[in-house]
Amino acid sequence: MSDADIVLVIGLEVHVQLQTASKLFCGCSTKFGQPPNTQTCPVCLGLPGALPVLNKEAFRLGAIAGLALNCKISPIMKWDRKNYFYPDLPKGYQISQFDLPLAYEGYLETLPEGGEPKTIRIIRAHLEEDAGKSMHDEAAGTSDSRIDLNRTGTPLLEIVSEPDLRSSQEARAYLDELKLLMTYLAVSDCNMQEGSLRVDANVNLHIPGPDGVIATPIVEIKNLNSFRAVERAIDYEAARQIDEWEDRGLRLGEAPKRTFGWDDQKERTVEQRQKEESSDYRYFPDPDLVPVTVTTQFVEQLQQGLGELPAALRARLQSQYDLDAYGANVLVNQGSSLVAYFEKLAAVSGNARRASNWVQQDVLRVLNETKTNIEGFPVAASQMGELLRLVENGKLNTSRAKDVFEEMFQAKLSLGDAMKSLGIEEVSQDALVDLCRELLNANPKVVADVSGGKQQAVGALIGQAKKRNPNADPGSVRKILLELIQQMG
Amino acid sequence: MSLLQHSATDLLSLLQSGDVTSQQVVQAYSDRAATVEDQVHAILQPTWESALERAEEIDRRRSAGELLGSLAGLPVAVKDILCTDDFPTTCGSKILETFRPPYNATVIEKLRAADAILVGKTNLDEFAMGSSTENSAFGPTHNPWDLTRVPGGSSGGSAASVSADLAPLAIGTDTGGSIRQPAAFCGVTGLKPTYGRVSRYGLVAFASSLDQAGPFARSAQDTALLLDAISGHDARDSTSANRPPTSAFAEVEQPLESLRVGVIREQLGEGVDDEIRVAVEASLQAFQQMGASLIDVQLPHARYAVATYYIVAPCEASGNLARYDGAHYGLRVESPELGSMYSASRARGLGEEVKRRIMLGTFALSSGYNSRYYLKSLQVRRLIRNDYDQAFENVDLLLGPTTPTTAFRIGEKSDDPLSMYLGDLFTVGTNLAGISGLSIPCGFSAAGLPIGLHLQGPAFSETTLLRAAHMYQSVTDWHARRPPL
Ligand SMILES: [Zn+2]
Fold first, then answer.
1. Which residues contact B144 (CB under 8 A, 6 or more apart)?
2. Is-catalytic flag, B79?
3. Could you read off the pLDDT of A61-84 as tens digits, one per residue?
4. Which of B38, B137, B275, B301 is least buried, going by the fewest C-beta atoms within 10 A?
5. Are A54 and A24 in contact (CB under 8 A)?
6. CA A391, CA A385: separation in Å to the nearest integer?
7. In this predicted complex, what is the ipTM?
8. Catalytic (active site) residue B209
9. Tell me, what DSSP letter sits at residue B290?
10. Is B126 left (phi over 0), alpha (psi -120 to 50) or beta?
11. Of B102, B236, B328, the CB nearest to A51
12. Which residues numbered 186-205 in B keep a CB inside 8 Å of some CB on A?
C-alpha cells in the first residue's frame, strides 16, 4: 500500500449569516462593528420572562438557500433548544433545529479547478441563533472576560455536506460555489472577516486494506478564517493523519472524535482542549415557539422567485454568447452585477466575444488593481459598448481603444470626452485618400516596389501616415495605399 | 361598612359615582396591611407609597372628566414572578434578589392601561415551584384562616392577599394548580385561563408549555372583571392565542340554561377528605337545583397526570432556569474558574425544590433517557388531552374538588416532596390539556378551613365557567366569608 491509495474524506459544516436587518427572534439590529452590547434587548439578552418571536425574513432567506441547494423543505417549521452553559449564551441554550431541519437532502454542483465538475450532497441546512462574543481582557492584566452580546440571536444557516469531498481543491471549489450561490441570492454577504461565513471541516482517511477499506478517527478542524486556511488546514491534517495512522493505526470508533484548531501563523493544526464532560445537548422542542406548517404554496413561490442560479447562468452564457466554459465561469464567479455588465456590453457593442474579452482582460484588471467592484465602476456599460462598436466598425484600432478606455476610467470621462482629451477624431475617407496620394507622389520607389510584388514595402508609408495624422487608422491607410497603387499601375 | 368589605365591582361603582376616591380605597387597604401583614407575610415588596401617588393621579384624572380604564383606581397585588420595571422581580429566589427587570410584563402593561394600582409584589414558591409558598427564599406566607397553615402555592401570596383583605384583586400564575390550589386553601376565587389566553411575555418561565397567568378575587364577578383586563393576543408571545380580550364581566350575571355538568366520580372517592367530598357533593346538588343535569364522566388517563406533569414541567424548567448562572445578572459567587462560578452561584442562589426539579428535568432529557421519560410524557399528555376532549363532547364543564385535602400545616410536608406533588392530582390535568379551570369556595372543614370547588371547561370557556360560578355564588355565601384575622 502506498500513500497514493489513501483516500482523504472531507465533510464541511458551513455557517452563513443571513442578511436580515434584525435578529432571528427579536427586533435588534444585526449591523456589524457597533460598540459592544448596544444592539440588545430583553429577548436576545435572555432576560427572565422575555420570549422569542420568529423573524419571518430569516426563515424566508433560509428556505431560499435550501431550495437553491436543491434541498427538500420541511413541511413543518419546528424549533429545539440545544442546552449548554457558556457566558456568551445568555439563556443557557441555543434555539436551533434538531430533528426537523428547515432543508434537507440536497446537492451542490461544484467545479474544482482543473478537475471535472463534481456533485456534493447536502445532508441538511437548518436555522439557528448565533451566540455572543467572549473577549479576554489581556490588557487589563487580569483574567477577566468581557462579553459582547451584539451578535447574540443573529440568524445563521448551518449547511452540512456529506463527506463527499476528496481533496482540499474540492473543498475549495465547494466553498467557492456555495459562497457564490449565497451572494447571488442575497441570502448572505458571506463576509468571512465579519464572521458572516464560518467553516468547520471534518476530516479522516479511508485506507484500503486486504479486508476492505479502513476508516480512521474523524478530526474536526475549527478556526478556519479564510478559504485559503481551509485548503492548507486540510492538506496539513491529511499529512498528519497519515503519519498518525502509520504510528498508531487507530480506526474509527477506537478513539473519540477530536477537535483541532488551525493556527494560521504556524501553519499547523493544534489539538484543542477536550470538553471535560461529553456534550449531551439534551435537545427538546422549544415550548416558546409553536411548530408552524410550511405550505407548499409558500415553497413554490420561493422556488419560482429563485431566478437564474450560477450553474444555469454559466450554461446560458456559453450557448447564448458562444463563450467558452472558462470565460463563462470567470464572468459568473464575479457575481451577478458583473454578468449584467457583460450582457449589456455585449448587446451595445454587438460582439459578445469581444465584450467578454474586454471584461475579462481590461475591466477585471482595473477592478483588481483598484480593489473596487463593478457596482462602483465609473465606465458605464453603454459607454464601453459604444467604444467597442468603434473598434467593431474599424473606426478605432484596439490599441487606441485601450487608451480611450484607460482615459475613461482614470479621468472618469464619457467616451466622447475621453476621445477629445486624447485628440482622437475620426478622419474622413477623403482626407485619408488625399494623405495617401501625397505620400505616394513623394515616394515613387515604394510605388515601384509594391507594383513589383513587394507588398510589404507599403509599411514604411503607413508609419509616415501615422506620423502625419495620429488618428489615421493603419488598416484603412494600408487598404487605400494598395488600391491607389493598383489604379496607378 | 368598611371599604374592605366591598367587592371590586362595588368599589368600581363607588369610585365612578364619586362616593369614594381611589386614595381612600388604597389607604384603607394600606391600613389593613399595616395591621395584618406581619402575621400573613403575603407581600414581598409592598408598593403602598407609589400606589397612593397613582391613586391621587387617577382621582385627579377622574375629576377632570378623563376617560379611565376598566380597573381605574382599584388596588391589585401581583405575584412576584411578573416583570415590573419599577420594582424588583425576585421570583421568590435568592438568585434574583437584586434583579430589576428593564421592562414590564404584558400583564403589568395591561393593568396599567386599565388604570389599576399595583399595591405589592406577592410571595410565592421559588420560581413558582411548590404548593405551599414555603419554598420562598424570603420566608413562608401564612394562611389567613389559620396562621399555622400554608396558604397553598405557588401563588400563595396573591391568594392570601385577597383572603386577608390586603387587595380586592390579585394576579397569580398557574403551571399545575398554582392559582386554583391556593384559592381553595384561602377561600377565594381563582381562575387559570386557557393556555394562550393571557400573554406570558414577562412572566418568568417555569414550564413554558404550562404556565398561565390569571386572576384572584372574592367572587366570580370580580374575577371576570380582572380577566377581561389582562387577556388578549400579544404579538410578543408566539404561544398567545389570536383572540380578542374576554368580555366575561358583561356576561357573568347571565345564568346558563340547561347546563350539563360532568362529575368525575374518581375524584370523590378514596384519597379525598370526607369533608371535602361532602362539600363538593352538596355543590353538585346546588347546581342540580339550579336546573343543571349531572352526568358522570371518565378521565381514564387522569391518574397519570401527576407523573406526566413531573416530567414535562421539570424538563422545561431545566432549560428555562439555565440562564440563572451568575454570568449576566442576579447573584454571583465569585470564583477563579468559570465552571465553579456557575456551580457556586447556582448552589447558593437556588433553593432545594428548584434544584430537585432542575435535576429531574436534566436527567429526563439526557441522552438515553429522553425517549423513556420526556417523549413518553408527551404521548401521555396527548392522551390526557383526548380524555378531556371526549368528556366535553357531552358536558359543558366538569366539577370536582380542587384539592384532596384542606390547607396543611407549615412544615408538615416539607420533607415529603412526593406527598406534596400528589396534592396536585386534580389540577395538573387542566394545564397538561391547556384548558381553563376555576376554583371557588364551596364550604369549610370542621376546623374552619376553606374547601375549593374545581370547575374545568374546554379551551376558551372562561366566561362559561365564570357564569356557572356566579350562579353558584348567587345562591351560596361561602365566597363572602372572611377569615377571623
Ligand atoms: Zn434583541
1. B36, B40, B151, B160, B163, B164, B186, B483, B485
2. yes
3. 999 999 999 999 999 999 999 999
4. B38
5. yes
6. 10
7. 0.95
8. no
9. T
10. beta
11. B236
12. 200-205
Q: Which CATH number does the domain housing residue A458 bear?
A: 1.10.10
Residues with CB under 5 A from ligand 1 (ion): A 26, 28, 41, 43-44
Tens-place pLDDT, residues B432-474: 999 999 999 999 999 999 999 999 999 999 999 999 999 999 9
Hey, of A288, A290, A292, which one would you mutate to test binding to chain B, going by the most B CBs within 10 A of its CB?
A: A288
- Residue ranges of alpha helices (H) inside B176-323 are 180-186, 220-230, 248-251, 274-289, 305-320
For residue A83, which residues of chain B lie inside 8 Å, CB to CB? 318-319, 322, 365
8 Å CB contact between B276 and B403? yes
The chain A residues in contact with chain B (CB within 8 A) are 42, 45-54, 81, 83, 85, 87, 90-93, 143, 147, 276, 280, 282-284, 287-290
Note whether A359 and A331 are within 8 A (CB).
yes
> Which of B328, B329, B331, B332 is best to mutate for the A interface (most A CBs within 10 A)?
B328
SS3 call for B426: coil
Contact A89, A60 (CB under 8 A): no
- pTM score: 0.90
Residues B191 and B336 both lie in one domain = no
Number of domains making up chain B: 2
Question: Per-residue pLDDT tens for A319-375?
Answer: 999 999 889 989 998 888 999 999 999 999 999 999 999 999 999 999 999 888 898
Q: What is the pLDDT of residue A232?
A: 97
Nearest to B374 among A42, A48, A284 (CB): A284
Q: Do B323 and A48 touch (CB under 8 A)?
A: yes
Based on the fold, state whether residues A195 and A213 are members of the same structural domain.
yes
Residues B29 and B152 in one domain: yes
- Both A278 and A183 in one domain: the answer is yes
Instruction: Provide the residue type at B116 as one letter.
Output: A
Please confirm, yes or no, whether B355 is among the known catalytic residues: no
Positive/negative CA dihedral, A322, A326, A328, A330: negative
Q: Are residues A416 and A433 in the same domain?
A: no
- The secondary structure of A106-146 as a DSSP string is EEEEE--TTS--EEEEEEEEEEEE---EEEE-TTTTS--EE
Mind giving me the DSSP string for A406-444? Answer: HHHHHTT--HHHHHHHTT--PPPHHHHHHHHHHHHHH-H
Are residue B370 and residue B401 in the same domain, yes or no? no
The closest CB to that of A53, out of B99, B102, B238, belongs to: B238
Half-sphere exposure at residue A151, Cβ-oriented, CA atoms within 13 angstroms: 19
Q: Which of A47, A51, A280 sits opposite B200 (nearest CB)?
A: A51
Which of B132, B161, B178, B219 does the annotation list as catalytic? B178
- B370–chain A Cβ distance below 8 A for any pair: yes
- pLDDT band of B282, cuts 50, 70, 90: very high
